[in-house]
Amino acid sequence: MYKHLVVNAFPRSGSVFFASVLSVNGVYGAQTTSFHLPHIIGNENVDTIVVIRNPYECISSLLYKSHNPSEKHNCDNIDICYKNIVSESEQMMDIHLSEYLLYVNKCLEHNGSKNLYIIDFNEMQADSGLVFQKVADKFSLKYGHPHSKQKTGKEIDDIVRNQMSGYGLMNDKDGHMPREKTDLRHKVESYVNGLESLKPVYNQYSYLINNIKN
Predict the structure, then answer these.
(1) Strands 30-35 and 116-120: what pairing?
(2) How far apart are CA 33 and CA 134, in angstroms?
(3) N or C: fewer beta carbons within 10 Å in the chain?
(4) Distance of CA 43 to CAs 32, 108, 199, Å?
(5) pTM given for the model
(6) Which residues span the domain enclosing 30?
(7) Is residue 55 part of a domain?
(8) Are 10 and 53 in contact (CB under 8 A)?
(9) Given the DSSP bridges, would you call strands 142-143 and 116-120 parallel, antiparallel or unpaired?
(10) For the segment 40-99, what is each residue's pLDDT rounded down to a tens digit?
(11) pLDDT tens-digit profile of 110-124?
């Protein structure tokens, strides 16, 4: 019988990517689903993996995605896109930060629970294989398929990119995998890094990362 693992995170924190890689070469005996639902964190009937990313990074990515140059947003000029992003940020930032803190505070509330595994985004980037092994151990599963050779990072990367392209989740303008940053993305990051409102949010994030009890 397969276990159902929910990969949960604030938007642009890597939950879709992690769930996809997990299904390709992660833990055997589990089905994975990706959600952005902070309220289910701590539900004792749901085995949940929460990916926590630096708020400066995921907020920058979220704002960038909302006005990335594309036909959808009719914005092919970097300066115009940047002004739109700043305008949207002034209207929506309090909502974004409140939602981000909801994830962090729910993780702190249920830190150490038997059905919750908290992932530091940076650790996932540095050694995803080690994270997969820890997730498997946490939920009494086997890392990798028992009858298949473990895939290399390049093989996993190619498979996941093809899968996401097929689902419409990966293209030149938007995607759920690491890729080279554009000039606009760098401008957005500089803007977000200068926001005073993110400092207390970052402090709460740092406290959680330094006190994870998986």
Answers:
(1) unpaired
(2) 18
(3) N
(4) 16, 14, 29
(5) 0.81
(6) 3-209
(7) yes
(8) yes
(9) unpaired
(10) 999 999 999 999 999 999 999 898 887 655 444 445 677 888 888 888 888 899 999 999
(11) 999 999 999 999 988
- Domain assignment present for residue 7? The answer is yes
Other CB atoms within a 10 A radius of the CB of residue 3 amount to 13
Check residue 198 and give its pLDDT.
Answer: 96
Q: Please state, in angstroms and rounded to a whole number, the distance separating the CA atoms of residues 98 and 6.
A: 22
**Amino acid (1-letter code) at residue 127:** D
Give me the number of domains the chain comprises: 1
Q: Using N-to-C axis directions, what is the helix angle for 55-66 and 78-109, rounded to 10°?
A: 140
Q: Which two tokens stand for residue 6?
A: 């929910």
DSSP code per residue over the chain? --EEEEEEESTTSSHHHHHHHHHHHSEETEEEEEE--GGGTT-TTSEEEEEE--HHHHHHHHHHHHT-SSTTTT---HHHHHHHHHHHHHHHHHHHHHHHHHHHHHHHHTTT-TTEEEEEHHHHHH-HHHHHHHHHHHTT-EEB-TTSPPPPHHHHHHHHHHHHHHTT-B-SS-BSS--PPPHHHHHHHHHHHT-GGGHHHHHHHHHHHTT---
Q: Which residue has the higher pLDDT, 92 or 27?
A: 92
Is the residue at 158 inside a domain? yes
